[in-house]
Amino acid sequence: MSRIITFDNLHNTRDLGGMITKDGRKIADGKLIRSGHLYAASEADIKKLSGSVDVIVDFRTNKEKNEKPDPFIGKAVYYHLPIIDSLTAGVTREKDADEKAISMLMQSPQKAKEYMCNTYMGFVGGEFPISQYEKFVRLLLEDRCGAILWHCTAGKDRAGFASVIIEEILGVDRNFIIEDYLKTNEYLAEEVKGLKTLLFGQLKKANASINTDNVTQDSGEKPGINEEKMNEAFGYLFGAKEEYINTLYTKIEADYGSFGDFVINGLHISYDEQELLRKKYLQ
């Protein structure tokens, strides 16, 4: 399992160091770090990152980056590699995306799940996102002394798939990869709880306003919202679900035959380059 790194204001920052591969080796400590956004980092957080991170890769949209820019982290070199180019409820965190999420919560949990599965398939469904992930892997091939840190906003979707790619290349067992992916739910529990309170409050307020003039003549009661379905839909939109990562694997295997073939023919990372990554990051 990846190891959580404790910070003041960063809640899903993890070192892949210590993860065991199928051949009994392990990922080196302090070299590969996944994270959510860095915008809220305290001065102590920035100092801590500055002492270990050489490269930062930001997978967020331009709008996300501009609304909540990364702080300067020591002498770390910054790369912006957006995976998607538009707001996406449950994935990006622009104001408009949250409003879209509110609208979706009024629909059905099934639609929310299908929406997220389709979003994940989009990570490997076009040349642009695949080319961005290829650039990420090529950054991993470069020589450096410190760590490379990659992040999106929550650190569960775009950054989550980046983690899957490198863990697959390094030879981590798929069951452990999925288990580690799902750990995001634990590490983001408090942050997601706050977001849920905010969105549900806005939704209930909007619903009350809409229904002010829709009181039924027979009962005098306003039509309510189904909070049970809202909770389920919220979980699909803002949680890490095994269905999502399995959807990615299924899409990759349908399009390329296997994950290994995806690395070769989709990401264009040769066998020699994969072996170099193992030499660099495994002990």
What does this structure look like?
- By secondary structure, the chain is of the alpha/beta class.
- The chain has a domain at 1-83 and 123-185 and 258-283: Protein-Tyrosine Phosphatase, Chain A, CATH 3.90.190.10.
- The protein is built from 13 helices and 6 strands.
- The chain has a 6-stranded mixed beta sheet, with helices on one face.
- Helix 2 (62-67) links the parallel strand 4 (53-58) and strand 5.
- The longest helix is centred in the last third of the chain and has 22 residues, at 189-210.
What share of the residues does DSSP label as strand, in percent? 5-15%
What is the N-to-C order of secondary-structure elements (H for helix, E for strand)? EEEHEHEHHHEHHHHHHHH
Largest sheet: 6 strands, mixed
Arithmetic mean pLDDT: 87
The CATH architecture of the domain at 1-83 and 123-185 and 258-283 is: Alpha-Beta Complex
> Which residues form runs of ≥5 with pLDDT under 50?
212-223
Number of separate strands: 6
Rg is 20 Å
CATH topology assignment of the domain at 1-83 and 123-185 and 258-283: Protein-Tyrosine Phosphatase, Chain A
Report the structural category: alpha/beta
- Main CATH class of the domain at 1-83 and 123-185 and 258-283: Alpha Beta
N→C terminal distance = 15 Å
3D shape: globular
> For this structure, what is the CATH homologous superfamily of the domain at 1-83 and 123-185 and 258-283?
Protein tyrosine phosphatase superfamily
The proportion of residues forming helix, as a percent range, comes to 40-55%
Q: Give me the number of helical elements.
A: 13
Strand order of the largest sheet: 1-2-3-6-4-5
